[in-house]
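SAMPLE LOG
Freezer: B-3
Tube label: C17
Construct: single chain, 171 aa
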Amino acid sequence: SINLLKGALDYEFYHYYDFNSLGLSEGQKVEYYFIVWDNDFIGGPKSSRSVTRVYKNPTREEVDEMMSQREEQLSEALENARKKLLEQQLEIERVLAQTTGKRNLNYEERENIKKLSEQQAQLQNEINELVQQNAELNKIQNEINPYSEELLEKQQQVDELFNQLASEEME
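STRUCTURE (predicted):
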């Protein structure tokens, strides 16, 4: 039962169904649709049927391709974070060289240091998010296909990038 407002012509509703509970084999399809009824006592109940949709259980190849694409995107994001980190380190070294030996920093120098600190915190958050995405991706890969050599190799490469990125460079 859905509570409706008088006079409204369109309503959206959301329904979750776990297609995995059907035990579909690879590549198998399921067509589905919704039918809704009103409770018009005067004119009689009427129904409306949604468009027929199709759910296709992916094949092993499709899953591997999807996981490879996600792995590539994650690797690119890691590489971008690594470049940002290197740029930030150079900027920190420049600021340190300018401020070393000074007892009192002027307003501009303090603001520059504050900005660098904020940028470092933001980059650390980005890296932490990428680490979490990598862990989720690894979990999915191990659930779907724990023995795929190509995916395991890519996973190891991404893990190595994470280790390099999260090592001493961030400290």
